[in-house]
Every structure is written in C-alpha cells, then in structure tokens.
Design a protein that fits this description.
This protein is an alpha+beta fold. The protein is built from 17 helices and 24 strands. Strands 14, 16, 17, 18, 19, 20 and 21 form a 7-stranded mixed beta sheet that branches.
Amino acid sequence: MTASLVGALEGLDTLLCEKSDLIGGTTAMSAGTIWMPGNRQSVREGVLDDAQAAAGYLEAEIGPAGKSELRAVYLRSGPHVLDYLEKHTDVFFRLGASSPDYHSQQPGATLRGRALVTPSFDGRLLGKDLASIRPPRRESMMLGGMMIGRDDIGPLLRPFASFASFSHAFRLVLRYAVDRLRYPRGTRLLQGNALVARLLHSLRKAGAKVETDASLVRLVRQKGRITGAIVRVGGKHSAIEARRAVVLATGGASRNAALSPGSAWREKVAYSLLPESNTGDGMKSASTAGGSIDTAHVSPVFWMPVSVLRETDGSKSIFPHIAFDRAKPGLIAVNAAGLRFVNEADSYHDFVLGMLRSHESVPSIPAHLVCDHSFIRDYGIGLIWPGGRHLKRFVDAGYAIVAPSIGELAGKIGVDADGLAMTVSRHNEFARTGIDLDFGKGTNALNLYNGDPGSKPNPCLRAISVAPFYAVAVHPADFAASVGLRTDENARVLNSQGLPIEGLYACGGDMSSIMCGEYPGPGTALGPGLVFGWRAAMFAAGRINSGDLL
C-alpha cells in the first residue's frame, strides 16, 4: 500500500492488486505499531533517540554481518519516510506508550521512542470502502464489532469505578450503537485497522487504482526485464503492463510449506495468524523469474503463542497472547514434564522460540499456562477477561482446565504431577524473594512494563496458591515471514549472482527481513515494510538513485 501510494504521489500510474476481497492483510489485524529509530515524531513529545545507538543495538541483536548495509539504509531512511507520509498523506504516527525495546540488556536499547502507533481513524470517512478493510480478529473486539484499545479495557470492565470510567465507557458504547444502525461494525478504527484505513483513504485521494480479488498468476519477462504480470481478476486472466515496476508484497510464504525452509518447524505448527490468502505467490513468481530466496535466518518466521477455543458452531477462535497475561504475576508456562522452559514475560517471539527449543527434548507443544483463581480474578487469561466473566462457558468448552489442586490439574492436562508440584513450589519461593533464579522473570524493561507494579517485590511474580487452579493450552503460530527474497537497498529483487532483476521489487513479507529472524522490538515487521515500500516507489519514479541512503 505504501509503494502504491508513494508511486501515485510521485506521478506514476499505480494499480494495487489485492488477492482477497479484503484489503490490509496481517497489518489490519495487528497492533499497527512500527519500530522506527531516530524518528522526529517522538522528539516532538520530548523523547530523544539516537539512530547510531539503534545501529549498535541491532548489531548486538543480529550480528555485524547479517544485512548490515540494508539496516543502515533503514535507519537513515526511516525518519524521512515518516515525514514524507505525514506531509503528503493522511498516514502519520505518534509516540506510543513506554514500549521498550524487547532486549533492554543489549547495548543501545532504549525504553521509549522507537515504537510509534497510528492514531485512531474515523471509518465513516471511507464510505463504502469501510466494508473492504479486513476487520480485526473477532476475539479482539467487543459486542460483535467494537474495537477497543489498551486504555478502554479498564473503563469497560469497571464502568462504575469513577465518573471518568463511566463517561469513557458510555461514549464508546453509544458511538458503537449508533454506528451499527448504518455500518456492519464500529467505525472507530484503531491500531492496524487505523493504519490500513489511513493508507486506503490516502490512496483514493491520490487517484491510485485498487483492485480486489486480483491474484498474481505469473510475472511477464521480456529481454531480461520484468515488464508486467498476469493477474486473475474475477476468474479471468488479465495482462497488466508495468512500465516502471512490479512491486511484490504478497505477505511472504509462511503458509506455503514448499517455500518455507526446513519442514521440521512447520510440522510442529498447526495455527497461523496470517490470512489464508498468504500462500507465497510473490516468492513463487519471483523465483521462476530468477529471484533468489535468502534462508540465512535464525527463524524463518516471527512467532506468537496462541490459545484456541472451539466454538459451538464448530469454528475456532484463536487468541494471540501478546502481553496482557504472560507477564502478570502468578502465571507460569510448563511443558509435559511440568517444568518451566522460558521467561513467561519475554516477547511473544522469544516465548515461542523457548517452546520450540524445549520441544526438542520434552513435549512442549502445546505448553500450558498455569495460574490460580486470584489470577483469573485480577487479570484474566487469554479469552477470559479479568473477573472471570462467563468463566463456565470457557471451562465447559475445554478452553480452560480447572481443578481443586495442582496435582489434579496436572492429571487433567497430562503433565507430570511431581514436576508441576515442584515447579509451583519453586515459583512460589521466587515470588516471596522477588528473584526468579531460573529465568529472570521481572528483570528487564519489557517484563516490568507489562507486569503489575502493585505486586511486590517483583511486578511479575506472585504465589500460585488460591484454589481452584487453571490451565490454558498455548500453541506456536506464525504472524509474519522472515525468510524472503533477497533485495538491494531500493527493494529490487536480486538474482543468484546478487544482481538486480530489472523492473522487479519486493517489500513487506516478500522481502527477506533485515532482522534475519530476530525480533528486537514492537513493529519489527511493519517498520521495514513502510521504508522499503517507499524506497521501491521513489527509485522506480527516479526520485532517488542507487546508493542513496535517504
């Protein structure tokens, strides 16, 4: 969307082809956060960041060799891309909450300033286009279609706690009720939905053409140059000429086992947070045209732990455990031996990597999140809201397993009873001292940010002791691709000799991630997607040259 928008603004005739009937892909269902060091948006709010420090942080995370040239381009271009979009479009960002880098122990990490969020957007401005934006996951909405943000949860759960809470909740519900008289869902768009809405609104204003139900069949190549594409639109093949560029952004190949390197990890993964239309069309077509796929990544995808509720109609609700429960005090994650295997409060990507490593020696897929009744009351878990609203429904459906004792809970979830009892006892001692000797839960900035400051002496530790006891199974799920097509600094696809294929570009999930399978902070996938989409369009339009860092 960024490449198409920027191309249109720079005078090119652009056509955005979306394979499905909904626009926005994974972005529309995400938090919409971008990781963009050195940005001027945070400076306006008094938070300074040093891009050179960010470069050091990425080198410590990834190593000096892995795509260091592309990372340098990203860090130099990122602030200019944000300023460009803010000046010429309806797409802009602001400083989010604290949102620390995910590995604060690394040199160059920062507690605030690199994670930016998209302000809410009034979906009514889109008119009929609102229906074409992919909605958020239904598990993340209330009342069947009302989006909610982090600041909305408290007032909605406790509307009578204060006048401010009541006023906040009342305005949200009233707005939603009025919306549903005219629209299929709420028009207060947040997070990734707001980002996609702002991009689409800007695309329309720029005169760019958008086609849905338009899937890539193959690329057209003449005299060594990509000159167009064959696209299936409405069941018919159409030949589209591309005078300047074909930009591939089909979401990567995570759902395509044939294109994903190594089958071992795919065999362990039953769930994905990606749209079903993400089947690697871009990478398949580029490979046929001579494009090279970069597989030198510590992980082929980026990960999220998810829990699964089987609904009465046979469908499945998949809930991503981003931060709201794993970091809170009084929860542990255990494998089949009843043992912990990871710092539960670390990032979603790190949590699943820990699960995969544990599974190599002890069955750990699924793993189980274990807590007590007081945890459910105070924080909820997964799909279960704080206070345990409709708790019986989740227990009856088998989503949450409940037992009067730890030993009986172990039997119900199929883990070693002695191991679980020992683990809970050891964890409770850590809660008393405030020091997790095994995994250091509560010792880094991300842990503390998502913990409960009211829990002493450690915001992420509390005894598991109030019966009954609960367990929720979690599975690995991929939410973005890391492995992708090799590109240069302007997103041109490279062949096996490292030379650009003229006329062919890739960004987003189709482009090999500059993070090489590491996940240094919130918005690791979206930030580079914006930057290299912008660079692809600017280069194709002749506005920047090879070697330009801006």
